[in-house]
Amino acid sequence: MITLLDYGAGNVRSVINALQGLGASVRVAASAADILAAEKLVFPGVGAFGHMMQVLNAKNYAAALKAYLGANRPFLGICLGLQALFEGSEEAPETAGLGFITGRVQRFRIAAAVPHIGWNGINCNQPSPIFAGLDGNEKFYFVHAYHVVPDDPDVILTTTDYGGRFVSGIQKGNIIATQFHPEKSGAAGQRILQNFLQSDTPACLPPQRPARTHLAKRIIACLDVRANDRGDLVVTKGDQYDVREKGTVRNLGKPVELARRYYAEGADEITFLNITGFRDFPLADMPMLAVLRETSKNVFVPLTIGGGIRDYTDKRGRRYTALEVAAEYFRSGADKISIGSDAVRIAEDVLRTGRATGDSAIESISRVYGSQAVVISIDPRRVYVKSPADVRHVVLKTDRPGPSGESYCWYQCTVKGGREGRDLDAVTLARTCEKLGAGEILLNCIDRDGTGAGFDIELINAVKSAVSIPLIASSGAGSVEHFYEVFTRTAAEAALAAGIFHRREIPLTEVKKYLRGRAEIRP
Ligand code: 1PR
User: Fold this and answer.
1) Ligand 1 centre from 275 Cα, in Å?
2) Which of 268, 269, 379, 493 does the annotation list as catalytic?
3) Is the same domain home to 434 and 469?
4) CA 20 to 30 Å from 4, out of 287, 420, 452, 522?
5) pTM above threshold 0.70
6) Residues 496 and 473 sit within 8 Å (Cβ to Cβ)
């Protein structure tokens, strides 16, 4: 029997699914007494440090946790569940942590993109039961902007390299905690959870100890989902955002089945975009929540969901905030949410008024769930101009001149699935959203979408150089070479594709195999 501590933020469903998949009975702690009565306690923290500690204190969980930890009883902390063990965090300097381990949590101070998102390795510093069956070359999924700095080096279980070396796991007696997410780390993560479940697992060190670990470039499979004309939820795919063929919505398969297939083929993440979310209210769209719940039962890589995340008033006048909409997605199994149309509206407001309100979807969701959980999906379209002085936007000199020989262009943001162009460029949108607390950019390109002509390198470089958060390059993948090109000619951290995977033109396994042979990319 495993007791799981859910303080109400983030995606604990995946941890429950992963543990249950391994045969464990999981009880969710509903009181401090449940924590004290636990045989084994798992604390999967997702979100922001300050909010987490406020809830732990308000529910009296903090005192129970301190007693449980002090008694050296079996504990597995994940991500924020590791950071909570420390005395405090730069993320919320006024809030004390549990103080079980002396030391602090600090923000990455590195030249690389922050948050650190994706698959990285571990160096194992001391024997541990959780390492049984690992060979040491495995990669695990990380998603965090802060890392722990223990005073006592003896508690360090693992380290990881990202713009420098940081502590990615600790062990003190029976208390083990990892910065990475075993429940999102495929088979290797399942192994770690299984080792924790089996009380007789002997402590060991994996045979391989890499000198340095590397963050892999991620390959993401994207499922554009909507109801077809018969009302069934299907995966569709457009050409430059037009998903109809001879008037009918293209049907390329069922969302849950396709997600399972891509997990089996080695996708590093899966993204669902509810492409008609802008006109429907997502919480009324129960099938989409059911898709997430079903997928997260046996797909153990991160899931992102986008479409319709914004404030909403229903027909009876009940108001829902974007935070409530996002919360429902997180509860259903999403690890990140992606905001499209509403991000444009929010940025326009900030630019017009010169100030942030503090309660926009981007700010409120990142405050509770952490910036790493907030992706901004940008749907830009290229607009040619004769001279940079023609518009008040970030203008690029292009190697691909326009129809009338124009050698400059800007990338116009669109909303509602490309149906409406706005007076805002993609670079400014990305920059503004980063300031508001977004943790990642999903950069689509309407001109390239579904064409198979390759990613828009000029667009990607323009946006990537304007932000310091990770960027997912999207739209236009038509060959394995296109993935190689995007990772060598831009600094994108991830590449997303849809059509070539859905139509089985190039299997995901093939893309990963091709990139693995090229040392500088290290997928
Ligand atoms: O605006 O917050 O409700 O979110 C709506 C979301 O739905 C946005 O993220 C937007 O990008 C997406 N969306 C809206 N309409 C469409 C459409 O296709 N008609 N799909 C759409 C966007 C683009 C990519 C696609 C890549 C790769 N899909 O995600 O998967 O371009 O395709 P490819 O590899 O086949 O070239 P909101």
Assistant:
1) 6
2) 379
3) yes
4) 287
5) yes
6) yes
Residue in the structure block whose two tokens are 């997605």: 329
242, 446, 449: residue to mutate for ligand 1 pocket, most atoms within 8 A of CB = 449
CB-hemisphere CA count at 13 Å for 203? 11
Alpha carbon distance 90, 109 (integer Å): 12
- Please check the confidence at residue 523 and state whether its pLDDT lies above 60: no
Reply yes or no on whether 79 is catalytic.
yes
Residue 280 has pLDDT above 80, yes or no: no
Sequence letter at residue 234? V
Query: What is the radius of gyration, based on Cα positions, of the chain?
Result: 23
Q: What local confidence, expressed as pLDDT, does residue 200 receive?
A: 86
Atom from ligand 1 closest to the CA of residue 274: 7
Query: Which distant-in-sequence residues (6+ apart) come within 8 Å of 393 by Cβ?
Result: 410, 412, 424, 425, 428
CATH code (residue 448): 3.20.20.70
Q: Whose CA is nearest to atom 15 of ligand 1?
A: 417
> Do 372 and 263 reside in the same domain of the chain?
yes
Query: Would you call 214 a catalytic residue per the annotation?
Result: no
Q: What is the tens place of the pLDDT at every residue in 249-274?
A: 999 999 999 999 999 999 999 999 99
Measured CA to CA, the distance from residue 412 to residue 380 in angstroms comes to: 5
Task: Mark whether 181 and 280 lie in a shared domain.
Answer: no
Residues 317 and 175 in one domain: no
- pLDDT value of residue 314: 83
Question: Beta-carbon neighbour count of residue 229 at 10 Å?
Answer: 11
pLDDT at 8: 75
Residue 9 banded pLDDT, cuts 50, 70, 90: low
Structure tokens at 144: 């965090």
pLDDT score recorded for residue 458: 98
Shared domain check, 275 and 235:
yes
For position 12, which CATH number holds? 3.40.50.880
Which residues span the domain enclosing 107?
2-197
How many domains does the structure of the chain reveal?
2
Do both 167 and 291 map to the same domain?
Answer: no
Residue 500's H or E segment, with its range, is helix 499-502
Q: Whose structure tokens read 């997702």?
A: 46
Residue finishing a domain among 168, 197, 226? 197
**19 and 139 share one domain:** yes
Residues 288, 192 share a domain: no
Establish if 180 belongs to a structural domain: yes
Measure 278 CA to ligand 1 centroid, in angstroms.
12
CA distance 179 to 168: 5
Across-strand partners of 377? 442
Q: How far is the CA of 360 from the centre of ligand 1 (A)?
A: 22
Q: Is residue 278 part of a domain?
A: yes
